[in-house]
Amino acid sequence: MTAFALLIFIGGCVIFLQWYIGIRRLPVISNYPSDCLRDLPSVTVIVAVRDEEKNIYDSVYTLLNQNYCHLEIIVVNDRSTDHTLSLLNKLKASHINHDKLKIITISHLPAGWLGKNHALYQGFLQSKGEILLFTDGDIFFTKETLKRTVNYLISYNLDHLTLIPENKGGTLPYRAFHSYWSIIGIWNFIQLNHAGVGAFNMIRASVYRKIGTHESVALSPDDDLKLGKLIVSKGFRQQLGLGKDLVSVQWYQNIPEVIHGLEKNLFAFMRYRVLYVVLFSIVIFLFHVIPFIGLFTASFFAQLTFAAVISLYALMFTINARIFNDSSWFFLWVPINAFIFIFCLCRSAYKTIRNGGITWRGTRYPLKDLRKK
């Protein structure tokens, strides 16, 4: 058991160093100037929405309030059945910058497309901006968001800038899980060497065309990550950053919403392969559950080693808390969140295989088609 504990400790040290070096390199874009360039390029913000009546008015309102001159906002209403469209029309009729807002309504989804990807692509087809920002209908922006991000993108000669938004609200168990999720997510981006965040994907329009647009990821539930991979593989310059004080979202409210929300994505992250699901679940269990069990059940020297592993986690969560304004004590939730994550992952795989595909927002996508992408 001592040798096993030592292996987990060594692995934990490697992961910690990878994560720490990576997160230290992530720029906080709000710390950079918003006025270093005089002539800013035109920007088109493209928002894909379906049944987003809860947030759509306030979200698009923050876009219309941007301190940015050369701006158009295209909201693509993808077959909504709630009050999304009426709220958008109300906003367009009342806001002082209503001329910047264009509303497109889609009533039919062609074969071979995921709804959101198709909506974003349709928005692109009607866009005029030199720079595109793909985002969601529940994201909120401060007035300086576009100025600062475009200045950063141009100043550092980037082709793609994607930001991790601030996460707001939710129950205590949800906040603890999100803290755990953010650490895993950033480490995953570091290992992949590419990134993409659906809340904020800013890309030069010329580059978007060269990588094949959303047509190249038409059936990918993780389109943001797949686009990021294409951008890097084609030799373009990409930067992942932190959207603190610029971009925010309430991802979910509670754990049941997390479980339901991750249903369509997690198996896709595993490339729809059961073997990857099994291996990743085992790794999560070994690294995030066993040390907490072994702390009370193993031999003395193994206990000391497991205590060192847990101390590493405490340090990671302390650093993470300073960045994302969460509690450093969430490291105590690691084994609970590991079980939640494994459950979400296995549930995503099981439901996708059992149903022969995924059903998302009223549309079914066959597994055989998803695997093609």
UniProtKB/TrEMBL annotation:
Its main location: membrane. The chain crosses the membrane at residues 6-23, 274-294, 300-318, 330-350. GO terms for cellular component: plasma membrane. Pfam families: Glycos_transf_2. It is found in: Cell membrane. Keywords: Carotenoid biosynthesis, Cell membrane, Glycosyltransferase, Membrane, Transferase, Transmembrane, Transmembrane helix. Gene3D superfamilies: Spore Coat Polysaccharide Biosynthesis Protein SpsA, Chain A. GO terms for molecular function: glycosyltransferase activity. Residues 44-175 form the Glycosyltransferase 2-like domain. GO terms for biological process: carotenoid biosynthetic process. Pathway: Carotenoid biosynthesis; staphyloxanthin biosynthesis; staphyloxanthin from farnesyl diphosphate: step 4/5. The keyword Ribonucleoprotein does not apply. Catalyzes the glycosylation of 4,4'-diaponeurosporenoate, i.e. the esterification of glucose at the C1'' position with the carboxyl group of 4,4'-diaponeurosporenic acid, to form glycosyl-4,4'-diaponeurosporenoate. This is a step in the biosynthesis of staphyloxanthin, an orange pigment present in most staphylococci strains. Belongs to the glycosyltransferase 2 family. CrtQ subfamily. This is 4,4'-diaponeurosporenoate glycosyltransferase. It comes from Salipaludibacillus neizhouensis. The lineage of its organism: Bacteria, Bacillati, Bacillota, Bacilli, Bacillales.
